[in-house]
Amino acid sequence: MSSGKILVSDQEGSYLLKFSGDVRVTLCGSLNRHMETIFGSTDVKRVVIDMLEAEGVDSTTLGLIAKLGMHCQSKYDINVQLFCQNPSILRTLNCMSFDEIIDIFEEVPEINAELQVIETVNTEVDEIRQQVLEAHKVLMKLSPASSKEFTDLIRALESGR
Fold first, then answer.
1. Which of 44, 86, 49 is nearest to 65 (CA)?
2. Which of 16, 31, 58, 124 has the maximal Cβ count within 10 Å?
């Protein structure tokens, strides 16, 4: 798998996040910071996640996507649109009930946006630990059937190990 990267665009209330390669916890500080920008906006019309070039995503990334989806539903009354054709990623999204909070599409959309690499954030270990913990708690909330998979990790993170 190739190293992951996230590209973003913000055009008049339409936000695009494009994932490519293997998107892992190392990018989550930057992703979380960018999501805070979206959360702080009063004019969010559309949020799109393009995963057409994503080879893989870890559970922390999935938790942040779930957090984004839940926030957009509750605060802006919109569903995040996610585009993906990777069978493995689609299977994971479906198994974890992402279709309840995000509109998932397999066809290739028409998106014209100027993309830029997401701002790199140097995140301290404690902040990363907190982001991983929060992301996994969101996943447990979204998919209680999957919660046993994350219980040990959450306990370890809460105890500071």
1. 49
2. 31
DSSP, res 41: -
Q: Is 129 exposed, middle or buried (0-12, 13-18, 19+ CB in 10 A)?
A: middle
Closest CA to 139 of 150, 153, 127: 150
Span 116-158, pLDDT tens digits: 888 877 778 788 888 888 888 888 888 777 767 777 777 777 7
The DSSP element (H or E) to which 128 belongs, if any, is: helix 125-142
Give me the residue spans of the domains in the chain.
Answer: 5-158
* pLDDT at residue 108 greater than cutoff 60: yes
Class of domain 5-158: alpha beta
> What residue type is 100 in one-letter code?
E
The CA-based angle 65-108-29, given to 5 degrees, is 25
Report the b/e string of 56-70 with b at 16+ CB within 10 A. Answer: bbbbbbbbbbbbbbb
